[in-house]
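HUMAN: Please help interpret these tokens:
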Amino acid sequence: MSGPGTTVAGRAPPARPLPRPRRLLRVAAVLAVTVALTDGFLLWARGLATPVGPERAAASYLAAPPPSGDPPGPRPPAGVYRYRTTGYERIDRFGVERRYPPETVRVVTWRGGCRWRETVPVFTQHVETYDFCATGADAEDFASSTRLTYFLVAGAQRFACAPTGRRLLTGARPGATRSWRCVQGTSASVNTTTFVGPETVPTPGGPVAARHLRLVTALSGQSSGGAVRDLWLDPDGLVVKEERQVGLKVRSGFVGLLTYEERATFVLSGRP
């Protein structure tokens, strides 16, 4: 016979389940640790922003040089351009705000045929590209992309445009507009470019005659909201100055719905 606390055939008695309050406390403790670790990771990752200098930009984004001769314009000569920069971008999670470095770059590179690309690496975590075709009369914007990385998770959108935009609105009078639409899947970018008029822009290298254009964009789909970019372009279509205001709602599979805001100014300070 076996009494209380003894084993049967050498086996220990079955473990008794924890009382319900103790199980709840253990689950709550695990959840608290998980939340703390997640919050700690997000707080650490929020500040990651690596500026891109001219040398790194050239190594990363300059492709093969354009062919010999004089490819059709208008388009800037290939190379790395430097800009005095002020501004920031922020999202409504954990007080994330990335102040822009005092100098940023834009890289113009030939992509074959009439195609050229302008790459704007504000940070390694924020890279924009603008693809255009230089036809001789104007430059046609046919695609663009933005890649943003927050909390080590990259989000990218690339839009293809039909009809295309026109970079300079060559021959247009002040007040003239052109509307154009770009899509990626179920996301859309509806754009209107207005030629404000000819203006002279002061830069560190001296005054530059430019065409002032205002690009207003409305986004829907993965991102919703809008942007206003005032662009001053030289006769080749190079950005001499840009002022931008962006406000978006962005869906992220990692941290949910985000509010994104950007305010920035770029002024040409150096050529290749």
Notes: Confidence is low (pLDDT under 50) at residues 1-9, 27-46.
